[in-house]
Amino acid sequence: MAQATREVTGGRRRRVPVKQVEAQPMKAAVNPWTVSSATLALAGMIISGIGLYFIVLRPPLLPEDVRHMRLSAGELEAIGPRLAMWLTQVFRVLGGYALATGVLLIALAITAFGTRHPAAVAGALIGGASSIGLMSMVNFMIGSDFRWPLFACALVWALSLIAYGFESYASAAVPGNGNR
After folding, report:
1. What does the buried/exposed string (b/e) look like for 29-50 if buried means 16 or more CB atoms within 10 Å of the residue's CB?
2. Measured between alpha carbons, how far is 113 from 14 in angstroms, rounded to an integer?
3. What's the N-to-C CA distance of the chain in angstroms?
4. Cβ contacts of residue 47 below 8 Å, gap of 6+?
5. Strands 13-17 and 3-7: what pairing?
6. For 149-172, what is each residue's pLDDT tens digit?
7. What is the model's pTM?
8. Dihedral sign, CA of 127, 133, 136, 139?
């Protein structure tokens, strides 16, 4: 039996037997995170952040909103306070939906998307297209100051789907790899 030196009371050292453990074969670590699921989770975090911004920080009217509506200073003064009260509530609701969409994308990335469940890619495609995809497209249509940052967010979501496709192709090319 192997011996090791250990300190015992009184500052003295003595040799004590070390219990040997029988060697166990190492199991390969399973990484549930694929590039596609990690990227989809990142897209979900970004969309959740957008939702929190709309709930907590977004003012009712941005300078670009006033420019787009082509309101004069007098018109804005007349309807501004009533419009601001209404838009505050509208943006809270929009923010809640964006936050929920982001959280659900994260949950999808952690579960069914990473395990290649067939419905997961459909959910990610439809959910992303109808949320960040549509938001980005509309912001380009109105010439928003936020069109490029939103496009970058939509690109993260699209990259998750592209990575999913590459991963599916690569796993199908490996014989005996099954669905993964």
Report:
1. eeeeebebbbbbbbbbbbbbeb
2. 56
3. 46
4. 98, 99, 101, 102, 105, 131, 132, 153, 157
5. antiparallel
6. 999 999 999 999 999 999 988 887
7. 0.75
8. negative
